């Protein structure tokens, strides 16, 4: 059975003491919630990773990074590699978030390299895909997302692909307060799973977690997570408060 994952993408928010406070509060509330069948992932800014991981690992909470460089080491001033992330206890890494695609011009080819280096260093990539509003209005979102997947993931072997998680994040829903309806999310998630099945077979497709991201919050999480092909969420804004994040985690 594929895992359920709820991941908190803090983006460029929280200084160190705020980050410690938020992580500690998430941990405290999770301890109270006793039964937990969901993998919880905290994804703070790079410089907080070691500190947050020390708090989280005792409680079986995973830590992820928001990005990594496509090389393992070298003269790339200001960059952080997958090798370094693994060395401080990071488990997951977001690759291809729409903000990286938009503001840092990361394209499909670069993302394919980042996926490979992440897997090589034992990180689980959370590969983000999703269409703009214009593409949705032109009624081509499925073809667009399928192209993102084939361009950045389909060089992987079956064994490598089985270690990837996917996050479907319609760009028009990220940080906008507009959420995909459960029907829209399910249609896309099912199409993604079918595409993986055609390329890698049923077992790989059935086991790959596909998360939804885009203004997911405590009001809409339950209905989104009830969709058969939605295996969790990548949460931005609503992950910045422990109460709303935990309420999303508890929506399964
Ligand atoms: C995100 O950036 O991954 C995201 C889903 O953000 P938000 O929840 O704020 O839309």
Could you walk me through the main structural features you see in this protein, from its secondary elements to its overall organization?
This protein is α/β, with parallel strands linked by helices and 252 residues long. It has a single domain, classed as Aldolase class I (TIM Barrel, Alpha-Beta Barrel), CATH 3.20.20. The chain is built from twelve helices and eight strands. The chain has an eight-stranded parallel β-sheet with strand order 7-6-5-4-3-2-1-8. Strand 2, helix 2 and strand 3 form a beta-alpha-beta unit. Helix 1 runs parallel beside helix 2, helix 5 packs across helix 7 and helix 7 crosses helix 9. The longest helix is centred in the C-terminal third of the chain and has 19 residues. The protein is globular and about 45 Å long. The mean pLDDT is 96. The structure holds phosphoenolpyruvate (PEP). Phosphoenolpyruvate binds next to strand 8.
Keywords:
TIM Barrel, 12 helices, single chain, about 250 residues, binds phosphoenolpyruvate, globular, eight-stranded parallel sheet, 8 strands, alpha/beta
Offer a quick outline of the entry.
This protein has one domain: TIM Barrel (Alpha-Beta Barrel). It has twelve helices and eight strands.
Question: Biggest sheet: strands, sense, closure?
Answer: 8 strands, parallel
CATH H level: which superfamily? Aldolase class I
What portion of residues is helical? Answer: 40-55%
Oligomer: single chain
Cofactors, ions and other ligands in the entry? phosphoenolpyruvate
Number of helical segments with 4 or more residues: 12
* Extended strand count: 8
Order of helices and strands: EHEHEHEHHEHHHEHHEHEH
Q: What is the architecture at the second tier of CATH?
A: Alpha-Beta Barrel
Mass-distribution shape: globular
**Integer count of domains:** 1
Beta-sheet strand percentage? 5-15%
Please write the CATH class name: Alpha Beta
What is the mean pLDDT? 96
Biggest sheet: strand arrangement: 7-6-5-4-3-2-1-8
**Which fold does the CATH topology refer to?**
TIM Barrel
Q: Quickly give the structural class.
A: alpha/beta
Report the span from N to C terminus: 15 Å
Rg, alpha carbons? 17 Å
Which regions have little confidence, pLDDT < 50, spanning 5+ residues? none
């Amino acid at each position: 059975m594929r895992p359920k994952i709820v991941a908190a993408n803090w983006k460029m928010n929280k200084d160190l003491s705020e980050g410690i406070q938020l992580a500690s509060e998430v941990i405290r509330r999770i301890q109270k919630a006793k039964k937990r069948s969901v993998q919880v992932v905290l994804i703070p800014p790079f410089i907080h990773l070691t500190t947050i991981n020390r708090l989280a690992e005792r409680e079986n909470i995973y830590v992820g990074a928001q990005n990594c460089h496509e090389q393992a080491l070298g003269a790339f001033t200001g960059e952080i590699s997958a090798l370094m992330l693994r060395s401080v206890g990071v488990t997951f890494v977001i690759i291809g978030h729409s903000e990286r695609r938009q503001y840092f011009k990361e394209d499909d080819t670069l993302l394919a390299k980042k996926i490979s280096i992440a897997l090589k260093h034992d990180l689980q990539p959370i590969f983000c895909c999703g269409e703009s509003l214009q593409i949705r209005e032109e009624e081509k979102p499925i073809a667009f997302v399928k192209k993102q997947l084939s361009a950045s993931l389909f060089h992987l072997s079956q064994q490598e692909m089985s270690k990837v998680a996917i996050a479907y994040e319609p760009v028009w829903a990220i940080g906008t307060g507009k959420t995909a309806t459960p029907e829209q999310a399910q249609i896309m998630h099912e199409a993604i799973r079918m595409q993986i099945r055609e390329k890698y077979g049923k077992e790989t497709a059935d086991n790959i977690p596909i998360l939804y991201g885009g203004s997911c919050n405590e009001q809409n999480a339950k209905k989104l997570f009830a969709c058969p092909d939605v295996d969790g969420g990548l949460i931005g804004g609503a992950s910045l408060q422990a109460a709303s994040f935990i309420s999303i985690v508890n929506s399964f």
